[in-house]
Amino acid sequence: MSFLTLNDVTYSYPNGFTAVENVSMSFEKGELVAIIGQNGAGKTTTVKMMNGLLKPTQGDVIIDGLNTKDYTTAQISRKVGYVFQNPDDQIFHDNVKSEISFGPKNLGFSEKEIDENVMKAAELTGIVPFLDIHPYHLPYSLKKFVTIASVIAMGTETIILDEPTAGQDSIAIKKLGFIMDSLVREGKTIITITHDMEFVVQNFERVIVMANKRVISDSNKQEVFWDLDILKEAMLKQPHISRLSNKLNFKDRILDIDQMIDVLKKNQVTEDQSGNTLIRDGANI
Ligand SMILES: Nc1ncnc2c1ncn2[C@@H]1O[C@H](COP(=O)(O)OP(=O)(O)OP(=O)(O)O)[C@@H](O)[C@H]1O
């Protein structure tokens, strides 16, 4: 059995609105998975069911053999940590160190474990210099890293990141990639909701696409970003470089600049006697 399974899950909010319908997905330990899809597709509702913040109205969520229906959110949050989309929904302490310590303290860790976890999380997220500062005095980007550190410090086997790239510059986005990589290397499962397709291409292999409350694709990035019907249904665009290669009728399913350069060098680019670049077979421009 997988470490984390959503089995034909439906969720309706108390006002009667059904946000997620008949969704199934499963994750192994050490997996790194992106969830993409239009606004309102049901992504956040789905991941909130993974850490017990929401309990399915139909179907089951099973984490490490535990059905979330039979356990409290506090018990489930020992297994799955969730980093909120908006850091202001998560932060409530008056200095960064207390904020990061709260989770492991709450889980009953010893003083030594708390200190070790806080330092490790702060180092990995690059926020050691800000430990004594009030989180509200930090810019949005750093606040987001405080919330990520707070969840890392809890030592859960799975970490869910909801829109981590929103409001981040390119250096912070690279740092996010590095953090996710380090956690996966430790054997943790990382599930990330994102609208940033370039970020997906650079960091993920498996991609789950949601549209209209359902999963419409769960495959590798090559399949997903070259299935134009799926992208249309999810109202998503191919990465820029894929759109360019598509418009140029290249045969290869290009997803990033390096691949584009390889393909151009190997197949489609030649030089004339004066050294001018010419494009041949496979390109139709
Ligand atoms: N507390 C709530 N009560 C009622 N409806 C809600 C509630 N929270 C979310 N919804 C609705 O459920 C639907 C799915 O929302 P959800 O946040 O899961 O989508 P999403 O794919 O994460 O979207 P986004 O990318 O905008 O965050 C939306 O139509 C939203 O308005």
Using brief descriptors, characterize the structure shown.
alpha/beta, single chain, 12 strands, Rossmann fold, binds adenosine-5'-triphosphate, four-stranded antiparallel beta sheet, 285 residues, six-stranded mixed beta sheet
Topology:
Elements: E1 4-12, E2 18-27, E3 32-37, H1 43-50, E4 58-63, E5 66-67, H2 73-76, E6 80-83, H3 96-106, H4 111-125, H5 140-152, E7 158-162, H6 170-185, E8 189-193, H7 197-203, E9 206-211, E10 214-220, H8 221-225, H9 228-233, H10 240-247, H11 257-268, E11 269-271, E12 277-279
Parallel strand pairs: 3-8, 3-9, 6-7, 7-8
Antiparallel strand pairs: 1-2, 1-4, 4-5, 9-10, 11-12
Helix pairs in contact: 3-4, 3-5, 4-5
This protein binds adenosine-5'-triphosphate (ATP).
Adenosine-5'-triphosphate (ATP) binds near residues 39, 42, 43, 44 and 45.
Protein name: ABC transporter ATP-binding protein
GO molecular function, one term: ATPase-coupled transmembrane transporter activity
Subcellular location: Cell membrane
